[in-house]
Design goal:
InterPro entries: Clr5_dom. This is Clr5 domain-containing protein. Pfam families: Clr5. Helices cover 67% and strands 1% of the residues. With 575 residues, the protein is mostly helical. Among the domains are: 76 residues, no CATH class; 63 residues. A two-stranded antiparallel ribbon has the order 1-4. A two-stranded antiparallel ribbon has the order 2-3. Strand 2 and strand 3 form a beta hairpin. The radius of gyration is 28 Å and the shape is globular.
Length: 575
């Protein structure tokens, strides 16, 4: 944590003179050449370069550093918002420094190079003694030496320093963008209980950013189902929404942009030669976003953010995921310093960041308790259904795990499903169902309950206490959700198609006794009915034929058609 701590929590960190001499190069570049504030310098040094020190220490070190050459003076942050909570509140989540992981990996590679050189020395010693066997190994070792030199140049080269510089520029652009939104005087955005309110005369596009995030999640479901023509159509909707959200500088960019990038990054790409070039879906999104931003804003912090990510994607695709995770943490850090670290938006961003990268971030219990408070308030008051669905979904998303969930969490999911299913079912009967907060909570709680009953418990004791027909309960949850979502809008129908694929896979994998012929026949008939319903749902999804797949031969197998569609779509995105 680079912010000031209380006297009881403060830990004294000492660095030797040689360590400060190594850090002076970074300090001079950040503070003098780029003009970063002291808080930004402390954040970048701790997160990127694994060099932690207090703010007061940096102020003393930087006070006499380049007074006449500074590009600008540090802008003072606004006063932190007054909160009723206790002053000593933990962070939304904790982080492990990225620099340590990089250095450990580089040390291992350096050790391998060192061992290889020692082996070569032993080979030369054998040659000096006239060992014929050593001469044979010397001839074979030339090829290995060339290969090893190429590997060492690729992994242990100066490109790591360039990646760090792009990350520093990215963090600075995020900080500048947040300050322009919330520290601009009368034109500043204001945070209320759950939302961010724009200044007078500025349209609020937060719902447009949420819609864009839902569309990208739909693209991910379609790719997992192998529906590439539907993906091609859906990407057109994503591009249209992208043109809408960039019209106004909106804090929705800071809130939803990182979730959109994580969704694109998690889309599987199973094409030869594409793994080393990075994710084509994310590259397509960043390039289209930059084109729209440059046409409106020119050179602004928003453009700098996208430029830094594109530089990392092109120069080192393997470092894109760590860069996105650290950038999201920086956005949470900057936004929390302006609207408060306990604001629900900041807490939700922290939870989603921890969910997207579990090995890097963790969510403390205090955050879950803060997200629980709005849920308890809805019990004793009268609130709108959309608000109740939002607060309940935020808490349920934070506490649910990928494994076996305890009974209290399952009870929360069952309670949320009970009243959201009733609302969605009525709208589906009237053909007015839309993918809003209530529908989103209905779909998520359904998936949680279905997965709970189909997965085995972790311990043997609970496995013996479980009823015998849990799989059938899971199938009923998914089947009921499919019958509701299939009559909604496009996003609802995409979720219905995803649930249909999931249900069909679970039914096929459900174990049955080979001696029970009646049960086997009923299951075969059930699979036929599920496939027929899935085909009906897929016919309702709009699609756009990928260029190059219009003329199709009758003797072609459908798997070859699917592979061709996938390859052409990925090639068009990468181009």
């Amino acid at each position: 944590d680079t912010q000031r701590k209380s006297q009881g929590e403060r830990k004294r960190i000492r660095h030797s003179r040689s360590e400060w001499e190594k850090a002076n190069e970074h300090l001079h570049r950040l503070y003098v050449e780029k003009g970063y504030t002291v808080e930004e310098v402390a954040f970048d040094m701790a997160v990127i370069h694994d060099f932690e020190a207090g703010i007061s220490t940096y102020q003393k070190r930087l006070a006499s550093l380049g007074k006449d050459k500074r590009l600008r003076t540090a802008k003072a942050l606004p006063e932190p918002p007054i909160s009723d909570a206790e002053p000593d509140i933990p962070k939304a989540f904790e982080i492990i420094c990225e620099q340590s992981r990089r250095m450990r990996a580089e040390e291992r590679r350096t050790e391998r190079v060192k061992q290889k050189r020692e082996r070569e020395k032993r080979r030369l010693l054998q040659l000096e003694r006239g060992n014929e066997r050593g001469r044979k190994k010397e001839r074979k070792g030339k090829t290995r030496d060339k290969t090893m030199s190429r590997i060492s140049q690729h992994w242990i080269g100066p490109f790591l320093q360039d990646i760090y510089k792009h990350q520093e520029d990215l963090f600075h652009s995020i900080d500048a963008f947040c300050k322009k939104l919330f520290a601009a005087g009368e034109e500043s955005w204001v945070a209320d209980a759950r939302h961010l309110r724009p200044p007078l005369g500025t349209p609020d596009l937060s719902l447009a950013w949420r819609r864009l995030s839902d569309q990208v999640a739909g693209v991910q479901l379609l790719v997992e189902g192998g529906l590439y023509n539907q993906v091609n159509f859906m990407l057109g909707h994503v591009l249209a929404s992208l043109r809408t959200v960039v019209q106004v500088r909106n804090p929705g960019f800071v809130v939803h942009f990182w979730a959109v990038c994580s969704q694109f990054l998690s889309i599987p790409v199973r094409c030869r030669g594409m793994k080393s070039q990075g994710n084509p879906y994310l590259g397509w999104f960043l390039r289209r976003l930059r084109e729209n931003l440059v046409s409106i804003y020119g050179k602004q912090p928003l453009v700098d953010i996208v430029d830094s990510l594109l530089h990392v994607l092109v120069s080192s695709p393997r470092d894109l995921k760590p860069t996105l995770g650290l950038a999201r943490w920086k956005a949470i850090h900057a936004l929390g310093s302006l609207i408060g670290p306990t604001h629900c938006i900041v807490l939700n961003m922290g939870v989603r960041c921890a969910k997207a990268w579990r090995s890097k971030f963790s969510t403390p219990t205090t955050t879950l308790e803060l997200l629980r408070q709005p849920v308890l308030a809805t019990i004793s008051g009268i609130y709108d259904a959309q608000y109740m669905a939002e607060v309940s979904l935020d808490y349920l998303f934070a506490v649910v795990t990928e494994g076996f969930n305890p009974p209290n969490i399952i009870a929360e999911a069952r309670e949320l499903l009970a009243w959201t299913a009733e609302i969605c079912r009525k709208k589906a009967q009237q053909r007015t169902l839309r993918y809003d907060s209530v529908t989103r909570a209905f779909a998520f709680s359904t998936r949680v309950l279905a997965k709970h009953f189909v997965d085995p418990p972790p311990d043997q004791a609970s496995r013996t206490q479980r009823p015998q027909h849990d799989a059938e309960v899971s199938f009923r949850y998914l089947g009921g959700a499919i019958e509701v979502l299939r009559w909604g809008d496009l996003q609802c129908r995409i979720r219905a198609a995803g649930f249909s694929n999931l249900l069909l896979a679970w039914v096929k994998g459900n174990p049955r006794s080979p001696k029970d012929a009646t049960h086997a026949g009923m299951q075969a008939q059930n699979i036929i009915e599920l496939k027929a319903r899935r085909r009906e749902i897929l016919r309702t999804l709009d699609k756009k034929r990928i260029k190059g797949t219009e003329k199709r031969r009758r003797d072609r197998v459908w798997r070859k058609d699917r592979t061709q569609e996938k390859n052409l779509l990925v090639a068009s995105l990468a181009g």
